[in-house]
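::Amino acid chain::
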Amino acid sequence: MTKGTEIRLPTLNRLRAFDGVACTGAMTGAAGQLHLTQPAITRSIRALERELGTTLLERTHRGCFLTPEGGIFGRRTRRFLQQMESAVAETLGADVRGDVASRLARKISDPHVRSLVAILQAGNFRRAAKALGVAEPSLHRPARAIERLVAKPLYRRTPEGLGLSPVGADLARRFVLAAVEIKAGIEDLAIHHGRAQTSITLGVLALAPKRLLAIVAEKFLHGHPKAKLTILEGAYDELIVALRSGAIDLMYGALRLPAPFPDVDEEVLLDDPYCVVCRRDHPLARTRRPKRADLRNYDWVFPTRSLPRRAVLDRFIAQWKLSSRVQIETNSLGSITAALAASNRLSILPREYAMIEDKSGLLTVLDVRVPEFQRAVGLSARRDWLPTRHQLEFVSLLREAANGAANRPTTRARRRRAARN
């Protein structure tokens, strides 16, 4: 199998042997299923148990039975192999029978997966070979072998050399995603034995309520001192790719409602609508409930068109017949703050950020109700994601904190005071 960022995964042969025994209840059953000898199955199981440092099977004269650890790891192994088979089936196409996909999936080897994933991560054959420390012809052999196996064009010429076709890139992405199950299974075992060093990777959008996240992170880490929480901030388009390929576990921030991909689920944690902001000593800053006519005298700092805020502001301006002159357009929070502080322009930002999280001291919120444009903050996860126990605990803490923040009277009062200042 491929290498994860921190651990090396067991080989496909060992995982298939274990799954075969788990499903049939016998070494002979797995041998028949996989067309191997019983001694070969036995060797693979023993090697896997040594690698994981635990006993997965109880051998008796009546057959083989899963130990508690075997049950934990067996669930992840089954999901892993199902995802591998599903990836092959989707590559082959809808007209291919399931048994054909299953048979072909069992023919995929570790070098096949390693080569395809390396090309995905490196961008082309030349860089992938260098990353693996092999000669380029040595990479071509398994890469071309898996292409012949699925009978689909997995590669194409690009300006940077020979790389993956869209079909090849999606197959490689699905392989990486499947491997997440085995990594999670290894962590599940560590949690079971009380020696877990939990690692959660969270993608965070720029305007997500980070104070709430920081409070939850501290509470979680206090209960799990050996845990590691990696927080990666990025644009939505960047993070959604990372989520769907298994590079991050969750994404936190403004939801799209509905999610843009069928394999992604969204969960609302709290509402965080947009508000109109300006510099603290702006002529409108002390105007109680500015009217439409008041706003028409000022230009705006526009978000770039790639951001959801831009569509909201465009509709707001059209509905209220405000100035639509675009002179400043930016995707940078710092640039918005600087442009507002140096002018009489207006802009829109999420209320949670503008009233609680903005520490610049340069901005204030106008008492203007932006027309009903839904903006919900929450979590995005892969639809078939099965969190570890610690990951589930982190999500539960985040839900509790979001619920408390939405109902906290002091928060509502602070917002009212901020709107009057």
Q: What stands out?
A: The chain has 17 helices and 14 strands.
